[in-house]
Specification:
This protein has 322 residues and is mostly helical. The protein has helices at residues 2-28, 34-41, 47-56, 63-75, 89-124, 129-143, 146-160, 177-211, 214-221, 226-256, 258-263, 269-278, 282-310, and strands spanning 81-82, 87-88. It has two domains: 2-84, no CATH class; 90-310, MetI-like (MetI-like fold). It has 13 helices and two strands. The chain has a two-stranded antiparallel sheet with strand order 1-2. It is globular. It starts with a helix and ends in a 12-residue tail after the last helix.
Length: 322
C-alpha cells in the first residue's frame, strides 16, 4: 500500500508540473496583461511607464523564464499577489475553497444518502411502477438546467414564500451558524437534486448488472437471506463504478459549481476562478487551477484505495494476480 501511495504521489507531482506549465502558458498567451489593462484605463501613463512596470514585474521576459521564476517562488510558498484583490493569492483562495468545500461536501453527502437507496429500490423493483417513477424523476433531474433550477428555487422559496434568503453567505447579517445554514439550503438543494438524478441511475444500472451474476445466484441457492445478498454481495460490488464516478466528480464539482455559486452569489472556487480569468488575474487563476488539479488527483488516489477495500480481488501492486 505504501509503495503504491508513494508511486502515485510522484506521478501527481509530475502531473502538477505539466498542468502548471500548460496553464501558465495558456494564460500568458492571452491578449493583454495587467500592465496593458492599467495603461488603457489611465491616459496619463506613457510608454516608458508601461515598460518600467513590465520590467519590475518581469513581464518583459520570455514566457519560459517567467514560468521558471513563478515555479521557484511557488515551491517556496510564494504564489504571487492577486491584482483584483490586492492580497496574496493564497489568502484570497483559501476562503473560497472552504466555501466550496462546505457547499459541495454537504450536497455530495446528501446526494449519496438519497441516491444509493433510491437506486437500489429501482433495481430491485425493476420494471414496476416504483422503477418507472424513480427513472422518470431521474431523467427530469439531470435534464434540468442548473441555472433554471436555481432560479426556480429562488422564485418559490425566496420571492414567493419568503422562507429563505436568495443568496449570499449571511455575513452582511452578522454571520452565525444558523444564518449560514439558511443561506446554504437553496444552493445545496440545487446541487443535490442534480447529483441524485445522475448517481441514482448509476446505482440502478450497476445493481441490475450485479444481480445477474453467477455468484449472486449461488448465494441465493446456498440459502443466504435476501438482505445479506443485497447488502453483502450485490451492493458492495455495485459501489465500485459509483466510486469511480464520485472520484471523477470531485475535481469537477470543486470548479463546476460555477453556475450555482453565481446564481446564489456564493463566493466559492468556481466563481473566483472565472472572475480571475476574466480579469487577467494570472496568479489567482493559476493557483485555483492547481488546487482543482490536486483535488482531482487526490480523488482518484482515494478511489483506487476504495476499490481494494470494496473488492479484495483488486490489488494495488503492479503485476499482482487477481
Amino acid at each position: 500500500m505504501m509503495q503504491f501511495v508513494i508511486g502515485r504521489a510522484l506521478q501527481s507531482v509530475f502531473v502538477l508540473f505539466l498542468v502548471s506549465f500548460v496553464s501558465y502558458a495558456l494564460i500568458g498567451l492571452m491578449p493583454g496583461d495587467p500592465i496593458d489593462l492599467m495603461a488603457t484605463s489611465d491616459p496619463n501613463m506613457t510608454a516608458e511607464d508601461v515598460a518600467m512596470l513590465k520590467a519590475l514585474q518581469g513581464l518583459d521576459q520570455p514566457l519560459v523564464q517567467r514560468y521558471w521564476n513563478w515555479l521557484v517562488a511557488a515551491v517556496q510558498g510564494d504564489f504571487g499577489y492577486s491584482r483584483l484583490y490586492y492580497q496574496p493569492a493564497e489568502d484570497v483562495l483559501i476562503p473560497a475553497v472552504w466555501n466550496t468545500v462546505k457547499l459541495v461536501g454537504i450536497a455530495t453527502v446528501l446526494s449519496l444518502v438519497i441516491a444509493i437507496p433510491v437506486g437500489v429500490i429501482a433495481a430491485l423493483k425493476h420494471r414496476t411502477w416504483a422503477d418507472y417513477v424513480i427513472s422518470f424523476g431521474a431523467f427530469v433531474g439531470f435534464s434540468t438546467p442548473a441555472f433554471w433550477l436555481a432560479l426556480m428555487l429562488i422564485l418559490v422559496f425566496s420571492v414567493t414564500l419568503g422562507w429563505l434568503p436568495a443568496g449570499g453567505t449571511g455575513e452582511a447579517e452578522g454571520g452565525g451558524f444558523w444564518i449560514e445554514i439558511k443561506h446554504l439550503i437553496l444552493p445545496v438543494i440545487s446541487l443535490t437534486v442534480l447529483n441524485v438524478a445522475s448517481h441514482s441511475r448509476y446505482v440502478r444500472g450497476t445493481m441490475l448488472e450485479v444481480m445477474r451474476q453467477d455468484y449472486i445466484r449461488t448465494a441465493v441457492a446456498k440459502g443466504a437471506s435476501r438482505t445479506r445478498v443485497i447488502f453483502r454481495h450485490a451492493l458492495r460490488n455495485a459501489m465500485i463504478p459509483l466510486v469511480t464516478i464520485i472520484a471523477l466528480d470531485i475535481g469537477f464539482l470543486l470548479s463546476g459549481a460555477l453556475i450555482t455559486e453565481t446564481v446564489f452569489a456564493w463566493p466559492g472556487m468556481g466563481k473566483l476562478i472565472f472572475d480571475a480569468i476574466m480579469g487577467n488575474d494570472y496568479n489567482l487563476a493559476l493557483l485555483g487551477l492547481m488546487v482543482i488539479t490536486f483535488t482531482a488527483l487526490l480523488g482518484n488516489l482515494l478511489a483506487d484505495i476504495a476499490y481494494a477495500k470494496l473488492d479484495p480481488r483488486i490489488s494495488l501492486t503492479k503485476g499482482a494476480s487477481a
